[in-house]
Amino acid sequence: MTFSLRANVPPVANAGPDQTVTADLTGYGTVTFDGSETFDLDPNDELDYVWTNSITAYGVNPTVQMSVGTHIVTLTVADLFGNVSTDTLIVTVQPSPDAAPTIVTQAQGQTVECDGLGDNAALQAWLGAHGGAVATSPNGQITWSNDYAPGSFVYDSPGCAAGHVTVTFTATDPQSKTATTTATFTVVDTTPPVLVWYVDDAVADDAAIYTLTKKDLPITVRVAAVDLCGGATLSKFSSASLAGSSKVKFSGATYTITQASVGTSVRFTASSVDDCGNAGAEEWLTINIVQEGKGTPGRKQCEGLNGSGSLGCDRQADAPCYQPGNPAARNKQR
Known about the structure:
By secondary structure, this protein is mainly beta. Helices cover about 5% and strands about 45% of the residues. It has 3 domains: about 20-95, Immunoglobulin-like; about 100-190, Immunoglobulin-like; about 195-315, Immunoglobulin-like. It has 2 helices and 23 strands. The chain starts with 18 loop residues before the first strand and ends in an 18-residue tail after the last helix.
């Protein structure tokens, strides 16, 4: 009698039918694999089962958690002799109809210094980044919206551009489920107003001394308080004779030197405060009366009121009132 030994044959892997499950509110679905239909022609052969995808599981019927989406899972079966067989199944995890976005990072408030242009660039950048908020949803990609409206800006005080606006950002997923987060955009004004001096209606340099003759009389001196971020008023405007004798008349916010002797020196002093409570430093301008010679008052530009520095203060005063979010608006001198 002749005996022949049959070689050990590989097992036949069977990963079972494709599956479709529904995720819970966490965005994961519970899946139980079924490799029970796998078989091996060799008697008493022990088999190892390994299921692989984004997860790794072992055994004939392991239970795993899988994220929303479509997954191709591979079952690898090996016997004691190292023979291997594979099979695949497709697992589809559908989003839960009750799942909603989750705010991972709450929106953050932002504080900016008033720029005299409505702080529009900073505001739009903050809104466009939805205050730095981050949201996720098992249902897919998030889209953002917000409830900002220029009319919702709350001013700290009348005439002052400083204030704040509170904005609610809404995250919406493909299932129209939403989640919200709220933050505040704040504008502060810490910059004092600027004084603009005029000698006979020509813009003059402050802290300067002007030499005039008696034939130049009468001479007028006035000063205006200008602020980027709201209204400004004079808190002080006075005159004093430092030497000689003069007759100075004040009318309609203007000083007029009507008479003065040669050698007279008149100093004008002013300070201002804006509607946000910022007080400017005290400034002065001095006029000396001599027999001959005349100093021509220099033109002073509105420092900080425009990028080029070439726009006169008298024109700047005619600009429209400041409005947060309005890039065309500037301060208007009161």
